Amino acid sequence: MSGERGVWPGLLLLLGLVGVALFLGADADWRRFGATPLTLAMAFGAAAGNLRPAVAHGLCRPGIRFAQQRLLRLGVVLYGFNLSWQELAGIGLSGIGIDVFMVVTTLGLGVLVGTRCLRMERNAALLIAAGSAICGAAAVVATLPVLRLREAEQARHAATAVATVVLFGTLSMLLYPALFAHLGSATAPFGVYVGSTVHEVAQVVVIGNAIGGDAAKNALIVKMVRVLLLVPFLLLLSVWLRRERGAWSDPRAQGNDAMGRVGDIRVPWFALGFVACAILNSLGVLSNGLRGLAQMSATLCLCLAMAAFGLETTWRLLRQAGLRPLLLGGVLFAYLVGVGGWINLHLAGALLPLIAGSV
């Protein structure tokens, strides 16, 4: 019981920060500038941690660690209730192929450019690449437990990766509507382009609504398939790390309980929970009320984890990272916009009839 009581001071602090983030994140004016509850939670946590560095230590410490570990994984599991396998089947093999190509090549390019050209740590480059390739801040926080970083590395790498998502996601909300107006494209194929290349789900929704027509519908369907690719990414990453024999991770780091074993492979159990929740959502066994509660709980847990990482993100840590994370984020953003546009120009025509027939 004493251990349970020990987490409450930190959790109450985080709940206060997250409450403001959720309130502002629901406002259309804030969302227009790329402010989602997840990114706002981390920003408010970072502001509090820099104004009063002592809050991340002492009495609040157990609650902060609880959010970074337990609530983070619970949030990833419950996030599965935002998805259904009908969405995956709805866009057919062409749509899945576009998403898989963009995710795999963006991840590979991010690690290659980050480590070889910019001389970044591989974990830092991988987190930035995951945020750009899959689903923004949610992908960053879902990848952290698999890497099993030391505490200081968790805060620094998470903050820099999320910063690239916020910056270039915001730029995308300005750029894509302008590109649409300049190119004179039809709304349906442009929506596929948006869904397969923009960082965050919320940013996809904003861009799709700004374009109008079928763009929002197609963009969201294609984007949710990218979110589903988070699970195979985490599973393959865990296998890769296992074969590297800990070369990317510290066996003494926090978060080892995030991994179970299947044979000789370390499996992130929360990724399997994510799949289980997506299956339950696909089967329709939950009422609308329970599904909505699960979705809100996922957002709350992930926001609490982001605020906890923010509390440990100091300006000193960000200065140590330098400009290289932003340079890598910029390279990946240019790749998504340019190469993603070329791929969609040549392949999206085959995709649209499948999408149109499924909704």
Automatic annotation (TrEMBL):
Keyword terms of this UniProt record: Cell membrane, Membrane, Transmembrane, Transmembrane helix
Pfam families associated with the record: Cons_hypoth698
TM segment ranges: 88-112, 124-146, 158-178, 190-212, 224-241, 267-286, 292-311, 323-343
Membrane topology: Multi-pass membrane protein
InterPro entries, per the entry: UPF0324_pro, UPF0324_YeiH-like
GO cellular component, one term: plasma membrane
Compartment(s): Cell membrane
Family: Belongs to the UPF0324 family.
Stated name of the protein: Sulfate exporter family transporter
